[in-house]
Design brief:
Strand content: 5-15%
CATH architecture: 3-Layer(aba) Sandwich
Number of strands: 5
Number of domains: 1
Oligomer: single chain
Radius of gyration: 17 Å
Strand order of the largest sheet: 1-2-5
Largest sheet: 3 strands, parallel
CATH topology: Rossmann fold
Shape: elongated
CATH class: Alpha Beta
């Protein structure tokens, strides 16, 4: 990611927008994901540092951080439709909004950051995870009703 931004930087004009892709794993502490989480934590730091480095050129740098979203990334963990339904039901209990996100919801966050509507936003992270990282106690697994 660093080298891609470095290579592209010479071609960016003032007003450009760089959007990096993070992951909730950077903050969740999921067993078995140490190396992946470390790289995504690096993306969080890089987003903020690059934002300060590109600011003099009028270039914004932000990050979108998806949580569990319905994409092919789950194929290895849930190779059949029934397995995917079971996986989604289990994980959705840990998400305050009670469901997986959709890829287009993440895409809309990216589109917003790339747009003029976000022209005064840099160094920010939009987390698209149904509240899993910022309000975990609101998840269905913790509800008493």
């Amino acid at each position: 990611m660093f080298f891609t931004v470095q290579a592209a930087s010479a071609h960016l004009n003032a007003g450009a927008s760089i959007i990096l892709n993070g992951s909730v794993h950077a903050v969740m502490g999921v067993p078995g994901y140490s190396a992946y989480a470390a790289t995504k934590a690096g993306v969080r730091a890089m987003t903020r540092n690059l934002a300060s480095e590109f600011a003099p050129r009028g270039i914004r740098v932000n990050q979108v951080t998806p949580g569990a979203a319905r994409t092919p990334i789950w194929s290895a963990s849930a190779p059949t439709d029934d397995a995917m339904v079971a996986l989604e039901q289990r994980i959705a209990r840990t998400i305050p909004l009670g469901r997986f996100g959709e890829a287009d919801e993440v895409a809309k966050a990216v589109l917003y950051l790339a747009s003029d509507d976000a022209s005064n936003i840099t160094g920010a992270e939009i987390v698209v995870d149904g509240g899993a990282t910022e309000a975990p106690q609101g998840a269905p697994v913790y509800r008493t009703e």
